[in-house]
Protein 1
Amino acid sequence: MVATGEATDDGSARPLRADAERNRRHILDVAAEVFAERGLAATLNDVAHRAGIGVGTVYRRFPDKDALVEALWERKFVVLLEVAEHAAASPTGADAVRSFVCAAAEARARDRGLVEVLARAPSDRTARQRARLHAMVDEMVVRAQREGAIRPDVVAADVPLLVVMVAAVADCARDVAPDLWRRYTELLLDGLRPGPGTTELSGPPLEPGELGSVLQRRPA
Amino acid sequence: MVATGEATDDGSARPLRADAERNRRHILDVAAEVFAERGLAATLNDVAHRAGIGVGTVYRRFPDKDALVEALWERKFVVLLEVAEHAAASPTGADAVRSFVCAAAEARARDRGLVEVLARAPSDRTARQRARLHAMVDEMVVRAQREGAIRPDVVAADVPLLVVMVAAVADCARDVAPDLWRRYTELLLDGLRPGPGTTELSGPPLEPGELGSVLQRRPA
DNA sequence: GCGTAAGCGGATGCGAGGCATCCGCTTATT
DNA sequence: AATAAGCGGATGCCTCGCATCCGCTTACGC
């Protein structure tokens, strides 16, 4: 099999040499792995070392960390999209929402860099993709609300924040109790159900436009 | 008014000179403030600068950051104790739990260093104090459960984790929406109520003994 | 007042850690 | 075989936090 001629993401000038292209993919794979374990705090040197190749090789292919992260954006994002599509196929809106929140939380618990990566790269295209995902979630939420299965005062923009909350538990309990986050995800999901005993949420949710800047902040 | 003769926390050798003692208190005040804003990431140099005194002065009084943090432990802890006492006086167990969780979350939202400071200093005395607080919370939880007002599968050890979750939102939305954490605190509290629609929590909570190490981990 | 010990300030040195380059060697490609 | 492309990783630069050190100031006891 011959190289596809697709060196970089677009069909740019000259194709990479075979070994270079192989390395490029390898770097992406390893970077995804390293960022999953340690978040974006990991350095390109870490990635290179783990990949068993020289730092120079990494820096030649990706001028800096941002470039690498951007290249990673797509593959991290499709995970969520697929999760959303799977969830949207649920029989009820409530199931859809539950399924999505739970799967997104799980993805984030497993991948410490997920939110960080996705919140970066504010290009037009990524913005459009994010909007698309947001719309899907919104649809699930609205559907569930029409069924009366989740409280009327929550909103699609709440979902990422739920994930942030779960992520906090996942990160700090990772070593001691790797599955602890599930417990609190369930608690949160139960907080979404409507009915007697709920107190109207006191403040407004985040505007979708504010989400980006909020999610970028490292929770330190 | 003359110095009390209490130079350090215990009645050790010679009392500090008046200006030194004044500075010592000032350092503690300022440190509390700085850590509240920026967490334990703030440096002693930051503290000194903010206090308008030299770095040397800080380091003479507190050999390193740990010493300063330990000196701060008490005053941070009593805040929580008082909150707990106030909450415990609530008419119902449910109110007590709600009141405590909410007040603790608020304290943490306002004080970014709160959990970090409290989770440090693992001396006998602090351990005893923590145990005391834990017992109070436990009592509230049990009381609320006997009333049937909160679900039977939560436990006192869950409460700190709830605070951690809220803290994550508070920290990353701090600039954009300083009160956003309330929204999610309310959601969590609603997740605590019992009744139809709750799904039994799937995993065990943290053992109280594990809490310490989990809470120490910086959520990065 | 005055002598002196205690305190003060902050420039400074040290070390850690991340980022990115550079250049002599290797290898794919034609 | 010639050559351009790629490779490796030691290396230098820089930022940042921690803590010390020493010449000057100040409170305090007599």
Protein 2
Amino acid sequence: MKNLDTNTENKILESAKKVFIEKGYDGARMQEIADLAGINKALLHYYYRSKDKLFKNVFEQTLQSFFPIIAEIILSNKPLLERIKLFIDKYIDILIENPIIPLFIANEVAKNPLIIKDMLIPDIDNLFSGLNDMIDDEVSKGNIKKVDIKQLILNIISLCIFPFISQSIAKMIFNYSDEEYKELMLSRKNEIYSLILAWLKP
Amino acid sequence: MKNLDTNTENKILESAKKVFIEKGYDGARMQEIADLAGINKALLHYYYRSKDKLFKNVFEQTLQSFFPIIAEIILSNKPLLERIKLFIDKYIDILIENPIIPLFIANEVAKNPLIIKDMLIPDIDNLFSGLNDMIDDEVSKGNIKKVDIKQLILNIISLCIFPFISQSIAKMIFNYSDEEYKELMLSRKNEIYSLILAWLKP
DNA sequence: GTCTATAACTCGATAGAC
DNA sequence: GTCTATCGAGTTATAGAC
């Protein structure tokens, strides 16, 4: 059906994604995107009127390739601790495949917070209160101690993402190769889970 | 003695710091720095030959205003757990005062890892082996369980820094004002410590 | 749709007067 | 030391031929 997506338009988007994510909006050059796509600058403007519009496309698509996978796990009907375990495992895997995307997103949102305004999960308040109910439920069963949902989320996300954001520094400090750092990240799956688990123990 | 530091040269550096940290190297404009310093572009080049050299000055000074405070705590001769507690408290305080610096550093280092090459702590290997000995010591005393020093460092740093890197997103998701977010960060001091403590329990 | 050529503009850097 | 004026390279965006 959408076989035409393999054509110029999609090739541009893929190239733009690569360049924007690597260099950021300010550092990216339309010429470089054109070169990578094997076309010339004029065509970029033919398909996406401006650098700004091309960027917004890239940003939105990047974000949307991340959230659904996460949402699926969060919204599954597994027990809380199992969901947390699944989330950590899956998230680390995604980050190993896309190590520089978190920095890209953090950076662009910091420079222009409004860019994300319309892209967030619509009923996020429901999501939070749902998770809160789950926590209360587990607490009443004596499975975990009571914690603030916001701190729980911040803790898990921080432990998963930050080592990727800081990886260029961390690799230098630890004197690690790419492969060694990847191994360290893989071993974090269990470390992070045991950390959260220990904290949640009643 | 260096009363002249209050003069143009220092005013330039302060303005440059502000603009570079906020916009990043690529997004920063010499014109904006000049305007903020109340001078004109030509004078920037008179004091710091190029944008690049001005940036390197800013970056180095920013980094050096961060590391010594941290190093002081890490190298103090307090017991391990006390050092960790002090580190978290002090670090969160610094980050509340300078919330956007971590993103700035992560970003610029990611784009050019070599920039940090000469600025790292010289005998970092000694630092690690020293900390490792401390861990082993506490383990043998039965105070904590054995953990990997790299994971410990990553965990603590992640928990402290990431909420600031992601603060523009987090404030939106949590629907928090600046003040509310600051309160959340302050309350994290104890949360992070109890998290690490629970993990380290033998 | 795709290209070449170029307009229009931004920005870092310099020349030269004071 | 500080300023005004301007150069020249690089960048986004468009015009117009094919």
